[in-house]
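Exercise 7.
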Amino acid sequence: MPDSEHLLTPPVQWAQRKSLIYISICLEDSKDAKITLEPQKLYFRAKGGCDQKDYEVTVNLFSEIVPDESKYVIRDRLIDFILKKKTEGPYWKRLVKEQQKFHWLKVDFNKWKDEDDSEDETGGSEDLEDMFKQMGGLRAGDNNLGDLDADVEDDSDDEELPDLEE
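Solution. The predicted structure, written as tokens, is:
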């Protein structure tokens, strides 16, 4: 096991809702991932990237989560987490307990929603399984996409084009 001096920190993005925290660890081709979810901590370690170097990050969370109701999936380019907050309510001031800024931590504005925005985007559903499915099926090993063209009607782009006039 290499010294912690040789470990790199992967980029981390996050967003939140009243009852959930979304975290994405941006590491391509991660192998041998070790992930630990605790009430106030997320730990990640894996080999990844083009050179398969060692990466590690520990996120000391601002407040508590429910590890048993939180989920994650390892994808080709990133590791997605949906963490269930222990208490639903006001947004956390920040993701981490520490008040310092970390160069590897950024807000995921693609998933961010302000606290006073409507929750209708997710259909108001608090069911994590449904949310995972909406995010592309976050259950590991569930890669069955079925026949994507099964219900597609003929597209107007498929029509023959008239000959060009000379």
